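U., I forgot to send this yesterday:
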Amino acid sequence: VTASPRSARPATECPATFTNQPTIAMRSRVFATFALFLVGANFVAADDPISERPENWAKPIEKDGVPNLHQVSETLYRSAQPTETGMKELKKMGITTVVNLRSFHSDRKEIGSTGLGYEHIYVKAWHPEEKEIIRFLQIVNDPNRQPVLVHCQHGADRTGTMCAIYRVAVEGWDKEDAIKEMTDGGFGYHPVWKNLPTWIRELDIKKVVEASTQTASNNDD
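Result:
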C-alpha cells in the first residue's frame, strides 16, 4: 500500500521570517550612530573653553585686520599676522611696538608709515632658543616700548610660547597654569608642536630673566 504524500507548501508560501532583517539592522546602526553623535555633542558643549574661561586668561578683542587678537595684560597683546589695515588699528589702540616671531616674513610693508616700533625675533617652533626669550623679555619689560603686540603666523604656537613664558617670568604664574592657557585658551594651539610645552617646563626661568636684565643694563650703559 502506497502512503499518500503529504501536501507540500507551495514555494511562494515559504515563510519570510528574515526578509526585513537587513532593514532592521540598518535602522539600528543609524540609531546607534545618532545616539553617539548626541552624546559627543554633549561632551563638546561641556568642554566649551569660553563658558569656563578663567578670568585671568587673555581677553579676546575684535579688530579689523588683526585676527586672533587678545589682551594678555595692560602692556602685552597677542595675535596672528596683522594686515596693513590691522597695523593701523593697532596704532589707534595705542600699541607702541610690534614683535614679529615669524622666520620668513617681515612686517615692514604692513607697518608702512604708521609709526609703530618694530622688532623681528626669528623663532622656530621646532627649536626655540633661550636668546629669543631673553630678547622678548627685554622688549616687553621696557616701558618705552610698551604696550607691545606679539604675533607669529597664526598667533598660536610661537606666540603662545612667548606669552606663557611672560606669564611665568613677569607675572609669577605657575608653569602648568601658563601652559594650560597656551594650549586650551582658544588661540588655536596645534598639538603637533608638543615639544613647546615640554620646552617651557624645562626652561630655566630664573636664568633667562637674569640674562634679560643684565643685557638691558649693558645696553643702557
